[in-house]
Design goal:
The longest helix has 28 residues. By secondary structure, the chain is an alpha/beta fold. Helix 16 crosses helix 18 and helix 17 crosses helix 18. It has 18 helices and 15 strands. A seven-stranded mixed sheet has the order 4-10-9-8-7-5-6, sandwiched between helices. Strands 11-12-15-14 form a four-stranded antiparallel sheet. Strands 1-13 form a two-stranded parallel ribbon. A hairpin with a 7-residue loop joins strand 11 and strand 12.
């Protein structure tokens, strides 16, 4: 008996080096006491820096976690089936929190908010609403590797890259947008919209007002949609401040126009609040038909009533929400500086960034050649020899070999220091090898390569089992 084409196709993206790195980490995870030589996970964009702040609030508000209201249990009420529109109290708290993150420059209507089980579900639902199989969305490169799964796998929609380069700081330009649009038409693909992450994953930079205006003008001219994935909006720890596309829509040029109905936001609490396991995402749209369709689709990925109840109490605590945002951003800033300074001591620089849970790291000088093959060789050495799982730029569809995404918020300071020490030693070994006499260099490289090939072949055999 054969399975469906969907079950047997290879378009999920699971074979990307982005996911393969996770698999290698899971086989040999670092632990300070049990496995001190294991692989340190630096490929996972989780925010673990402010759990103590959340735990303090829970300790001070036991009714929320205990499913009580004014001391009386509401367990039975929460245990019963809930309408897929979501709890009104939670949706009100959610839009209030979204506004707070944006400096209250934008007000959100809870009636235009659709809840989903995380941003993955939200992005896929939006694509289902806006495009048919065989149509296309334009995405600036480099972009989050999971989009190959989230946007394409079940929807049948294609991704066409908007090529952004390091020479322009990876900024979106008018020519890059037009080139991508023409490339799609050359491939006989109908373009239905543009999707951007703001702040960017994997770059850790916020879009400028110039870029946002450029995008609005572009989608207005072409008559297409714009999705702004803003799940990192609360992680902006340095100037310039975050500007949501919704803020620009308040301009009288776009307010209450057709363009306003073609701009949609994706948000979640996975990054800003550090709760990916709670599976809380959302779609915000001014288009009533999109809201209605996405709400129906949300029945395939609902947020539990218990989760909504707990978080509605937490986020509606305005004093807590404000203080949390500030404290979390300060901690992210300090951790970001720690990684940047540490990499600098190893002779490694990063793209100047102001947001996110990661740095876009420049290791072009460590490549043996300016090729993606050399990038993969370096990545395998860093995973197997150095014991760090980082994400190669090629997995993010970067046009230029030698860039890597390195996460810093999912570990302790001690673990981050160890990771920096390991990388510094690796760079020192490379420098010593390159500066050694020719014959000595060959001998050293041969030993390193033999050791790496043995490990790689061993891991390949493990996978075959």
């Amino acid at each position: 008996m054969t399975l469906s084409k969907k079950a047997t196709c290879n378009s999920h993206g699971q074979d990307s080096s982005y996911f393969l790195g996770w698999q290698e980490y899971e086989k040999n995870p670092y632990d300070e006491s049990r496995n001190p030589k294991g692989i340190i996970q630096m490929g996972l964009a989780e925010n673990q820096l402010s759990f103590d702040v959340l735990e303090s609030w829970l300790a001070e508000n036991p009714d929320a976690a205990g499913f009580k209201n004014k001391g009386e249990s509401n367990f039975r009420e929460l245990a019963l089936f809930q309408d897929y529109h979501g709890l009104p109290a939670f949706k009100n708290a959610m839009v209030q929190f979204m506004s707070e993150i944006r400096g209250n420059k934008v007000k959100f209507d809870p009636r235009k908010l659709v809840l989903s089980a995380g941003a993955t579900s939200a992005n896929e639902s939006l694509i289902f609403c806006l495009a048919d199989p065989g149509e296309a969305f334009l995405l600036p490169t480099p972009y989050y590797p999971g989009f190959d799964r989230d946007l394409k796998w079940r929807t049948g929609v294609e991704i066409v890259p908007i090529h952004c380069t390091s020479s322009t700081g990876y900024r979106i330009t008018a020519s890059a947008l037009e080139d991508a649009y023409h490339l799609a038409h050359k491939r006989n693909l109908k373009v239905k919209g543009v999707l951007v992450t703001n702040p960017s994953n994997p770059l850790g930079i916020t879009l400028t007002r110039t870029e946002l205006n450029l995008l609005l003008k572009f989608v207005d001219t072409k008559g297409i949609h714009l999705i702004s994935d803003e799940i990192y909006s609360g992680t902006v720890f340095n100037s310039p401040n975050f500007v949501s596309v919704m803020e620009l829509l308040e301009n009288r040029k776009y307010k209450d126009t057709d363009v306003s109905n073609r701009v949609h936001i994706v948000y979640s609490l996975s990054k800003d609040l550090g709760l990916p396991g709670f599976r809380v995402g959302a779609i915000y749209s001014n288009d009533d038909m999109v809201v209605a369709a996405a709400t129906k689709m949300s029945s395939f990925g609902l947020v539990s009533s218990q989760t909504q109840y707990l978080l509605s109490a937490m986020l509606s605590d305005e004093k807590f929400a404000k203080s949390y945002i500030v404290e979390n951003q300060n901690r992210l800033k300090n951790r970001h500086q720690m990684l940047v300074r540490g990499l600098k001591t190893a002779g490694i620089s990063c793209l100047d960034s102001n947001a996110g849970l990661f740095c876009w790291v420049d290791m072009r000088h460590l490549l043996t050649s300016k090729t993606f093959e050399a990038e993969m060789e370096l990545w395998k050495q860093i995973v197997y020899e150095v014991g760090l799982n980082i994400s190669p730029g090629s997995s993010c569809h970067c046009d230029e070999p030698g860039w890597f995404r390195v996460c810093f918020a999912n570990m302790s300071e001690d673990t981050l220091n160890l990771a920096i020490q390991r990388l510094r030693s690796f760079v020192d070994d490379i420098s010593a090898t390159r500066n050694a006499p020719r014959n000595s260099s060959k001998s050293t490289r041969k030993k390193l390569l033999s050791k790496w090939v043995f490990r790689l072949s061993f891991n390949d055999r493990e996978r075959e089992r």
